Amino acid sequence: MGIRLISSAVASAIAIGVLLLHHTIVFPIAIAAVCVILLFELFRAGGCLKFRLPAGIAFLYGMGLPFLVYFDQTAFRPLVAVSVCILLLLSYILLHERMSLFHALLMVFGTLLIPYSMCCCITLNEKDGIHGIIYVVMALCGAWLADSGAYFVGTFCGKHKLCPQISPKKTIEGFIGGVVTNGILFIAFAAVYSRIMAARGDIFTVHYITVCLLGMACALIGTVGDLTASLIKRHFQIKDYGNIMPGHGGLLDRFDSVLLVVPFFCAVLQLTPLYSF
Prior knowledge:
The chain has helices at residues 2-20, 26-45, 52-70, 77-94, 101-125, 132-157, 172-199, 208-236, 251-255, 258-271; strands at residues 161-163, 167-171, 205-206, 275-276. By secondary structure, it is mainly α. It has 2 domains: 1-126, no CATH class; 129-277, no CATH class. A hairpin with a 3-residue loop joins strand 1 and strand 2. Helix 3 (52-70) packs parallel to helix 5, helix 4 (77-94) packs antiparallel against helix 5 (101-125) and helix 8 runs antiparallel to helix 10 (258-271). The chain is globular, with a radius of gyration of 19 Å.
């Protein structure tokens, strides 16, 4: 427990530092580093690191995409993504005698999903000059707080298993508790944030129904990401994706839900605002 708390404190300090520097080059550098680590952990779990050519392409894409987004070169993103996909498939053709279709699909899937999802943090941050970093915090909390809420509710009230063959500790009661907790916390966060901004002279309207529904949806989607990552671990017969966070496992063990929640959060904001003046 002590090691777990220490690693949590260190990770939290790093995260806070990066968020405080969200308008500097530190932010895309941090996102790029996370992308590479997540790709490395996934490829290691799937036995893909031995395929150096596609792995190198994936790592370069993971390092480069955050800077394309940060420097607002969005027009190049589709071309770069398609080019990377083609290069990965070409690698499969060249290595087909040693590389299975499973490995090829895993590498294509991970390479396209992980950098795109993490770069949505940069997209949210750049969305506007007032709420940008708040959107990033809400999206990340939407993934992580639901898991905490589900854990506490499940510990005290959990009786019925949600998916015992995939994640034995998850319960239906905990799942519902996580969804409800997220909705409540999103409302509370938005209320406190609006009052802080009002005290500074920035008055705006909070769309509380949208905020609540988004929080609950993030909990649902985060659970899908969590269970999917657990299913992949069971397929590979591993307990954790790594040990970069002692007591917690790998970075992918912490970001499995984030990879689905953040792009969903970003997509919702394209359709409807959470705050309006």
